[in-house]
What does this fold into?
Amino acid sequence: MNAPVAAHEFGKVAVMYGGNSAERAVSLNSGSAVLAALQSRGVDAHAFDPSERPLAELKSEGFSRVFIALHGRGGEDGTLQGALTLMNLPFTGSGVLASALAMDKWRSKLVWQACGLPIPDYAVLTAETDFAAVAEQLGLPLFVKPAREGSSIGIVKVKTAAELPAAYQEAAQHDSLVLAERGMSGGEFTVAILGSDTDARALPSIRIVPTTEFYDYEAKYFRDDTRYLCPSGLSDAAEAQMRQLAVQGYQALGCRGWARIDFLLDNAGLPYLLEANTAPGMTSHSLAPMAARVDGLEFADLCLRILSMCEVG
Ligand SMILES: Nc1ncnc2c1ncn2[C@@H]1O[C@H](COP(=O)(O)OP(=O)(O)OP(=O)(O)O)[C@@H](O)[C@H]1O
Ligand SMILES: [Mg+2]
It folds into this structure.
C-alpha cells in the first residue's frame, strides 16, 4: 500500500474528461466528480478536455500529472496513455498495453483463455458468418456486441436465431470487430481492483440487478430501479473465488493502479470473466466508488489513492 501523499505533493493535476468517444456524456459526469473531490482535499486540480485543447498544453501550462477520467476510445484504449508516456507525464491507471487489451473484448478473452480463466463461450462475427450455426453453437439467448465499446452501447440481446443478422448489423455500426456471446443467466457482478503487481487487491464484489432485460445504457445511467448489492450476497467462498479471479484477470492483462472487472454467473452459479474496464465510471454513485465505500474508503480518498499510484509509461 502506498504511503499517504500530501495534496500539494501532487503538483498541478489535470483531470482529463469529456473527450469525443461515444461515452463522452458519462465521462463528463465522472470527471466533474473526480475534480470536485480532489479540489475538496486541497489538490491543485483542473479540468482538461482533450477534445477542446491540444495535449501540448499539459506541458505548457505546467501540469505535473494526469487523472484520466475518460471512458472508451481515445481515453481508455491506450492511445492517450501512449501520448502521455511520450510526454513523460505520470497518469492514473493502466499503461498502453493493458489499456489497449482491456478495450478490446476479443483480445482480452484470448489472453484470459490462454491463462485458463473462465470466460463465456463466444464467436467472432463477420458479414460472412453462418448466423444459424452460431445460434446453434452458443444457444439462445445470446448477446451481440461491438468488441471495443463501453456503457452497453451497440449491445443487442438476441432471443431467436432470426434476429441475429440485424443484431450483427447494429453492433457493426459501432465497430468493425463484433462478438457473439452465450447468454449467462445466473446473475451479474463487478469487482473493482486497486493497486499494482503483487499489491493488487480486489474490493468487495457488487451484484447488479437490472429490472430491464439486461444492464443497458438506460439501466446504467438513467433508471432509479437498478439495484446494486454490496456486499453482494455471495458465500464467503464464492466471494473469495470471484475476487481471486478478478485479480488474476487484472494481472493477466497487465493492469495497474485500478480497474473494474465484470462477471457473469452461469445457471450453476459458476463465475465467468466478462470484461475489464481500465477507466471505470467515477461518479459518486458509480460502482468502483460504491465498493470502495463498503471497504471504508470514501470517494475523495479513493480519488487520492488512484492519483497517488500515477506512473509514467
Ligand atoms: N454474455 C452475456 N450474458 C448475459 N448478459 C450479458 C452478456 N454480455 C453482456 N451482457 C449484458 O450487457 C451488459 C454490458 O456488457 P459488457 O460489460 O460486455 O459491455 P460494456 O458496454 O463494455 O459495459 P461497461 O459499461 O461495463 O463498459 C452487461 O452488464 C450485461 O447486463
Ligand atoms: Mg461491462
Notes: The pocket of adenosine-5'-triphosphate (ligand 1) is lined by residues 120, 143, 145, 149-152, 155, 181-184, 188, 214-215, 262, 264, 274-275, 277 (CB under 6 Å). The mean pLDDT is 95.
